[in-house]
Structure prediction request, 495 residues.
Amino acid sequence: MSARAAARFLDQSSWGPTPSSIAELQSRGIDNWLAEQFAMNTSDLPDQEILTSAGISNNNLAPVQAAFFQNAVSEPDQLRQRVAFILSQIWVVSATSGVSPAYAYPPYWRIFRDNAFGNYRDVIKAVTLSPAMGRYLNMANNNKGNASLGTSPNENYARELMQLFTLGLTQLHLDGTPVLDANNNPIPTYDQSVVTNMARLLTGWTYPTAPGTAAKNNNPAYYFGQMFAVNADHDTTSKTIVGNVKVSASQSAEQDLESLLDALMAQPTMAPFISQQLIQHLVTSNPSPAYIQRVAQVFQDDGTGTAGNLQAVITAILTDPEARAGDASASAITPTFGHLREPILFMANVLRGLSATVAATNSVAGTASNLGENLFYAPSVFSYFSPQSRTAKGLYGPEFQIYSTQTAALRANAVNTLIYGTLGGVKLDLSPFTALAGNSSQLLDYIAQVFLHGSMSTQLESAAMSAMNAVSAPVTKAQAALYIVLTSSEYQIVQ
Prediction:
């Protein structure tokens, strides 16, 4: 396996290649590397105190954010972390609206960490019963309707469960293209009656009971553990839900939930809808219909008759011919292939490439926030950016939704701070680059290997060479070359 192929694969499957991880992948090969990653589960986020010393809610997420970046840079379970983060971008819970206690986030993150290579059905169930999601989209303490009081169940979670988390708005063929009716109009995946019935089905769940308190039908918010059912508050009438599935009357809340999970997993639209988003985050914003179809087929059936096997799906995404097409040569990469490094990925990638040591208390999250992505503070249920967002030329470009002239300049400022200044809690090791500064060509080759899969355009090489020639000391030569490369458009786009 070439160094180029290894670096490309690691850019798609980890928080970023390093010289040592490139060599390791070359030695082990993709299959062995994937097997080791699938078996590895080392990262965690530290539980937080519920109250501050002053006895008020602890809403300080900084320690959790800092631990996230420390893990991303240093922990070996790289693929699990990447997939968990992607799932958290699909299944959004945010401190910007409703879920402000810091202690809610480590347990919520563990859902995605522990199920990153499990079954998507288990992800749906675990998030549905998460008290953090219960608070964010109003499913906790969502009681059955009362005609005499004029009340009805809240529909927020029922709607977003279908629209954003599983199916999308329109039915899809396996290749991700819309299913059309006789008038060439897209066919919706659901209508308002389905939302109403789904909301009725999801009634009767309350927060876990906090230690030292008595259980109530409607418990106050508590974010450790899973929500539990109070069947006295559950709508036990019959319902017709997604896929025109009839749910029998007199079922418990737990039974109704299982019926819903079965109905969702049976929808053929889920496979392309979720597969496309995973491909976009890991490999390319504009996968071909054939690429989506190949992955969606694995989502539907992993070869053993099982649907939703995320380990099989991730393997299919990363080993697909379209993902691996550029391993031999940059000339094999089409102009529409790849994706912009979103701020969180950008920061982690730079730090890993520069052999950074990240302390338990660090300022990385603040820098990523300045670039447009504040960890655990997604601006809405649609996450930091929409997977359907397109560029001016009509191509999908989700990450470009939070990329502007201002954030572009701030990326350069962030690189300048790292290379020439200091960032709190971060220590770089530029010695591998400085050691090669006596030979400009060797230095640029090494930088290209670490950050550009071994390929650097003649224009970028010329610009970096000019910057190096303007200074004399080995460290300033290395700094100048790194600054030019890491602020270039060639580095911003993962190809």
